[in-house]
Amino acid sequence: MSFTRSWVRPRARVVVPRWHHGPMNLMLFHSTYGLRPAVRQAADRLRDAGHEVWIPDLFEGRTFDTVEEGMAFKDEIGQDELLRRAVLAAAPYSERGLVYAGFSLGAAVAQTLALGDEKARGLLLLHGTSDVAPNASADGLPVQLHVAEPDAFEPDDWLSAWYLRMGRAGADIEVYRYAGAGHLYTDPGLPDYDEEAAEATWRTALGFLESLR
After folding, report:
1. Backbone φ, ψ for residue 56 (5° rounding)
2. pTM
């Protein structure tokens, strides 16, 4: 397994006082499959590293066996309602200075919330991104993206445009790509799973969180 890395130079960012020193406070959003065991396992791994983690259930108990089923349910809920649920989940903790994180669809949700939260400490994207508004501002926001190469859900032309837009918004970006891995390669319960890529991702992600302390 190999991966590639790229980045943009950080810009100045106003330092927001933390709730406390040390561990990060993470809001971790699930994928279109719902709040699967793999999400809980990921949260436990992060907690074992000393971080505080919340994993809101945006699907309110529903989980799915296929992407198509999950996407159909997401469309039934509607984008506005999905984001409303995410905002309500994060709101009680936002004063702490959250690191927003998510898997695939959850990564898109995390990005949307992080770009709208001036107190966000960081953004950890696993397997997904979202569009960036022309007027988005993320001066110096630390962002780390992990994505398969290739990835049908995150094609190269989309990622290139995303990278440039996030850079123009002022984000401090690192991108890691994993050749030959499936889309949701960190989930041991899915055919996409790639143990080597998953472990490399978690090692790098934990280092990223450590750098935010």
Report:
1. -65, 145
2. 0.91
CB 1 within 8 A of CB 179: yes
Residue 88 phi/psi, 5° resolution?
Answer: -65, -35
pLDDT tens readout for residues 38-74: 999 999 999 999 999 999 999 999 999 999 999 999 9
Tokens of 170: 């002022």
pLDDT digits (tens, 9 = 90+) for 121-136: 999 999 999 999 999 9
CB 11 within 8 A of CB 170: yes
Round to whole Å and give the CA distance between 185 and 193: 4
Cβ-proximal residues to 164 (8 Å cutoff; 6+ apart), any chain: none
- Taking the C-alpha atoms of residue 194 and residue 182, their distance in angstroms, rounded to an integer, is 7
Question: What whole-number distance in Å separates Cα of residue 138 and Cα of residue 167?
Answer: 9
46, 26 contact by CB (below 8 A) = yes
Integer Cα distance of 89 and 78 in angstroms: 17
pLDDT at 213: 82
Q: Which amino acid is at 202?
A: W
